[in-house]
Amino acid sequence: MTTKVGNAVTRNRLKRWIREFVRRAPALVAGDVVVVVKASAATASHRELDRDLATAFTRAGART
Prior knowledge:
By secondary structure, this protein is mainly α. The protein has one domain (8-59). It has helices at 8-24, 46-59. The protein is globular.
């Protein structure tokens, strides 16, 4: 993540949330995942981030 996505605390919080989402979705362990985070994610709630990740993985063809 770049410094365009908030300060270090915000970036680390987003990383933890994304890792937790992937950990809870066992169908996603088939390979490596690259998530590009937009600057607007810095102000998103955990619920919004989960919803957006689920949508993205569904569009990519993964089962969540």
